[in-house]
Amino acid sequence: MALSLRRKRKAPRGRYTPNLWPVWIVAPVALIAAGALGWVIYHYAYDHFAQAAADQESPKPVNINDVLKATVTALTLIGAVLAGLYAYRKQLLTEGDAHRADASQLADRYSTAAEQLGHDQAAVRLAGVYALARLADDWAEQRQVCIDVLCAYLRMPYEPDPTTPEHKAGEREVRQTIIRVIRDHLQEPDVPTAWCAYNFDFTGAVFDGGSFSTSHFRGTVDFGGATFTGGTAAFVGATFSGGTAAFRRARFSGGTAAFRRATFSGGTVAFDGAMFNGGTVDFDGATFSNSRVDFVGATFGGSRVDFRGATFSGGTVDFRGATFSGGTVAFRRATFSGGTVAFRRATFSGSRVAFDGATFNGGTVAFDGARFSGSRVDFAGARFSDGTVAFDGARFSDGTVGFRRTTFSGSRVAFTSATFSGSSVHFAGATFTGGTVAFRRATFSGGTVVFVGATFDGGTVAFDGATFDGGTVAFGRATFTGGTVDFRRATFSGGTVTFRQATLGGGTVTFDGATFAGTSFGWGSVPVPAGA
Predict the structure, then answer these.
(1) Who contacts 508 (Cβ-Cβ below 8 Å, separation ≥6)?
(2) Structure pTM?
(3) What pLDDT score was predicted for residue 524?
């Protein structure tokens, strides 16, 4: 019997229902408690009055009526407090009933909207989209669930080509409506019905257009494995603050993903493993502040990725291990302040990577271990101030790396241990002020490194330990005013090194410890070293 009562008392009564004791237990307990409390109060009051009477000069007997009045007053006060607690408890029960009714109604609305989303007719599915969005606004506790359902709809199989049997009539309008509904809830982050802080899962979805422009994302947006087949997926002017926009292993086979003037603050944009076989990914004028843009292992086979006029402050753009077999990656007139652009171990076999007109202030552009077999990497007119451009260990077998009219102020350009067997590296018209261009331990067996018309003012061009058995290194019409060209311990067994029409105005060209056995020199005004 006792076990049965305990089970009934502990049995769930609904989410908002208090767990109450039976009345036939509570009533006797309350009466006993009230009697015991009255007895305690009576004796306490009696002792108090007796002590007061004893302290008088003429002791008087205790007035029992005063004791009873004090006891009744105390019990009345306690009863009033208990009555207030009871009223509060009753209010909780009433509110619990109301909450249960609301929860039941919201659950019914959810079921209805979900059924509508699964209907065969597009018009009914559209009604389900709007019903679920309205439900998310009214049901904050389950808002993420409603968002997940809308995202799940977009993840369902979709054939955008209307000429195929798998295409469903009206399906594109339903999907575009879902995108618009989501976008509308991401415009004002501070309103109670905003979805900005929630997560969106579009993994594996197919997009043939849709706009998230001017949206505010503060959570995670996942487009992993998604396919962009046409139209424009627009994130123009969107703000990503502290969260992640993930496009890992996404496929861009047509159309445009537009992030023009978007702002990325402290978060991550991840395109690692993505495949670009057509279309455009556009970051024109975007701002990256302490953010990371990740293209690790991405494949570029004909698309255009554009960062023109973008601003990078303290963040990283990472193309490690990426493959460029076609298309263009453009950073024209971009500004890098303390950040890093990394192409380490990337392969260039037919693309163009353009940094012309870009500004680098204290940052790093790293091509360490990259392979160039037919692409063009262009830094024409770029400005480097206290930064680093590193091609250490890179292999140049074809194509061009151009630094024409580039300005280096206190910067370091490093081709340490690089191999040149057919490509061209051009510094024609470049200006070096106090910086370093290092070809230490590099191997020249073909191709051309050109400094024609370059100006060296206090900087260093270092070929110490390099090997020349083919190709050309040309300093024709270059001007040296206080700088150093260093060929110490270099080995010359073939190829050509020329200083014709170069001007030495206080600078130094040194061949200390170099070995000469077959290279053709054009000395110009440079003193011919012993053994050459």
Answers:
(1) 480, 483, 484, 485
(2) 0.76
(3) 86
